[in-house]
């Protein structure tokens, strides 16, 4: 369940979006542009769904400021189209909007969810799915959940429930693919999201630590050192989320080598390092 920040004055648009994403994503409703920027800055938001005309006229300046401050946040414009707005809608793409949803035209639950998933695929979730091609589907789902729900501080038992599998089965399947244990995989997921947030240079390590509910900035830095042998600044400089995912996959491949691969696997392909 990733976080979606919204700036949607029309309650009907909020209800339609909630109906579309259901339990796949969690919404953070904002009343104005400053609140939207603060929410995206302070929490692990990957996607913002906005009414381009929330303030009456097209707010390209708000989009520009959000993209300038937090370029990794994808933006979907959800608007009511009228004849006098056509030029503004045409300009939305150049302003930095990643997707466009027209009210009463393409905002059925299926189409809305597809728009969210397209925008999401351009960000962290899409990169993760490509990175875990060739992995046991249950293991890939576990890794994706560790990332998508990093802000929830899942326990291994909660992860197993989300996968609809006994905890022991999840542990065994992860071990068979030489992935970390459930508890360590959840920490890797939080580190991947933290690294993604660090890619926005405005975000400090302490702010990222608070967003993901680490006990303190020091605890976050210690976790970075323990898992990655790097400081938050070095993680940012080395590529952010893609660097952490590569580190995880190198860890997996190292364990595969030590275990004497090749052996029977759910797929003949290995996890790709090309991110």
Summarize the structure.
The protein is built from 14 helices and five strands. With 275 residues, the chain is α/β, with parallel strands linked by helices.
Describe the structure.
The protein has 14 helices and five strands. The protein is of the alpha/beta class and 275 residues long. A five-stranded parallel beta sheet has the order 2-1-3-4-5, with helices on both faces. The radius of gyration is 20 Å and the shape is globular. About 3% of the residues have low confidence.
Could you give the order of strands across the largest sheet?
A: 2-1-3-4-5
**Oligomeric organization of the protein chains:** single chain
- State the CATH class of the largest domain: Mainly Alpha
Please give the domain count: 2
What's the number of helices? Answer: 14
Q: Largest sheet, if any?
A: 5 strands, parallel
**SSE arrangement, N to C:** EHEHEHEHEHHHHHHHHHH
Annotated CATH architecture of the largest domain = Orthogonal Bundle
For the termini, the CA-CA separation is: 23 Å
Strand content: 5-15%
Mean pLDDT: 86
Which class do the helix and strand fractions yield? Answer: alpha/beta
CATH topology tier name of the largest domain: Arc Repressor Mutant, subunit A
Instruction: Give the overall form.
Output: globular
Helix fraction, binned, reads 40-55%
CATH homologous superfamily identity of the largest domain:
Homeodomain-like
């Amino acid at each position: 369940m990733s976080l979606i920040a919204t700036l949607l004055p029309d309650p009907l648009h909020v209800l339609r979006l909630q109906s579309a994403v259901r339990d796949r994503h969690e919404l953070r409703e904002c009343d104005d542009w400053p609140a939207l920027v603060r929410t995206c800055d302070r929490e692990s938001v990957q996607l913002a769904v906005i009414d381009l005309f929330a303030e009456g006229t097209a707010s390209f300046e708000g989009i520009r400021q959000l993209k300038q401050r937090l370029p990794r946040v994808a933006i979907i414009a959800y608007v009511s189209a009228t004849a006098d707005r056509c030029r503004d809608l045409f300009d939305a793409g150049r302003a930095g909007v990643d997707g466009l949803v027209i009210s009463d035209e393409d905002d059925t639950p299926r189409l809305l969810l597809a728009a969210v998933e397209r925008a999401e695929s351009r960000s962290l979730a899409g990169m993760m799915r490509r990175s875990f091609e060739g992995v046991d589907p249950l293991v890939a789902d576990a890794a994706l959940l560790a990332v998508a729900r990093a802000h929830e501080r899942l326990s291994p038992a909660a992860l197993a429930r989300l996968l609809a599998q006994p905890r022991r089965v999840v542990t065994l399947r992860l071990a068979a693919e030489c992935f970390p244990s459930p508890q360590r995989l959840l920490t890797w997921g939080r580190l991947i999201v933290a690294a993604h947030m660090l890619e926005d240079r405005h975000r400090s390590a302490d702010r990222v630590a608070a967003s993901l509910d680490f006990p303190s900035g020091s605890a976050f830095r210690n976790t970075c050192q323990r898992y990655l042998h790097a400081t938050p600044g070095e993680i940012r400089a080395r590529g952010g989320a893609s660097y952490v995912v590569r580190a995880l996959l190198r860890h997996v491949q190292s364990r595969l080598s030590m275990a004497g691969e090749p052996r029977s696997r759910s797929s003949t392909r290995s996890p790709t390092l090309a991110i």
